[in-house]
Amino acid sequence: MKDVALTPLLSLLPAARRRQCECPHQPQPVILDPQLDIPPTAYLLTSPHVRKRPWLLCHDDADPDRVTALEACGARILQCPRPPNGAVPSTRLDLAVVLTRLCEEGIRSIMVEGGARILASFIRAPHLVDRLVVTIAPVYVGGLNVLTGVTGPVHTLAEAAAAELAVEGAQQGAAGLATRSGSFFHRLRDVRHDLLDGDIVVSGRL
What we know:
Blueprint: E1 2-8, H1 15-18, E2 28-32, H2 43-46, E3 55-59, H3 64-72, E4 76-80, H4 95-104, E5 107-112, H5 116-124, E6 131-136, H6 145-148, H7 157-167, H8 174-184, E7 189-196, E8 199-205
Parallel strand pairs: 1-2, 1-5, 2-3, 3-4
Antiparallel strand pairs: 6-8, 7-8
Helix pairs in contact: 7-8
């Protein structure tokens, strides 16, 4: 069984360097990059300290020259068919297809990292997430919009749920808002919490 760290392209930050540790098993980095925008000079493709070159998941109509250039840097390219019209935005990968593609490669366990958009997409999709891990740090960095992946000011749970409705193009109403907010703000089960370097780590099953 292989373990995978799944991340969107924009999370290729210096933190990736800090996660390299001297342990016997490093997760296989997998990057969601629909159009193969990652530069060949990226740290994960060039650094001698990176033990495993990334797998890049992209659309099956990605530029063949980009495929060749990135493969020459050691990346493995996994192409996915574009979703049907309207299923997901055309600029994104279908997450169900992504997981199926990884399963075909023998992957049985993944850890999803990223910004609000990819995390919210996984949580909203049915049956894609088994367990959620939340790290609470004593640093104020954002508001409720981090939970929804939407932009603009969000100050209350009701506003967050309303913003989520707007993103999906739904009509906001009192009854619909109550129904949607109850399903969007998931309550974890089998919750545990630990202290780690001054942070609180909370985990539970969805």
